[in-house]
Design goal:
7 helices; 161 residues; mainly alpha; rod-shaped
Length: 161
């Protein structure tokens, strides 16, 4: 229902509250009291939208006189502002143990896989000591790298400069 109110030279519609509005207000305050009851145990499980709605309701109540707030509203206001949730949530003592255990398992698994891989690699025939000796003999025969190679050691030994 609306009434017309005179504003300057024109009439402006103004909403008029009816008896149902007072009843809804009483029900909403009762509902808000129910929804903030025991908030400490339920806060983490509430959806983010409901947390925001409760925080907004508490913020509106805080703007008024604190003596008019119920004990549950005061407790909810304190918990929302300073409670152990979000960044102030206490650390889980088992989390550190679980992280260390799984890290150790994966590290041991990776070390084990590395050593298994090392034992399963085929022996490359060009990396044997016999091959290296034959390679050095061939380098001396062909007089390869007279400054720092196998031939340089041979020249030094024979006194050739």
């Amino acid at each position: 229902m609306q009434m017309l109110a005179a504003r300057g030279a024109r009439l402006v519609p103004v909403p008029v509250p009816f008896a149902g509005a007072a009843r809804r207000a009483a029900l909403s305050t009762r509902a808000s009291a129910i929804s903030i009851a025991n908030i400490e145990t339920r806060w983490g499980k509430l959806p983010e939208a409901e947390q925001g709605a409760i925080a907004d309701r508490i913020a509106v109540a805080e703007k008024g006189d604190w003596k008019n707030m119920s004990l549950e509203e005061k407790r909810a206001a304190y918990y929302i502002a300073y409670g152990a949730h979000g960044a102030r949530n206490p650390k889980d003592p088992n989390l550190t143990k679980a992280v260390m255990a799984w890290s150790s398992v994966f590290f041991a698994l990776s070390v084990g896989m590395y050593f298994y891989w090392e034992t399963q690699k085929p022996v490359i025939r060009t990396m044997t000591p016999e091959w290296k000796a034959a390679e050095d003999a061939r380098a001396i025969e062909l007089k390869q790298n007279p400054f720092s190679g196998a031939y340089a050691a041979e020249r030094k030994k024979n006194g050739d400069n």
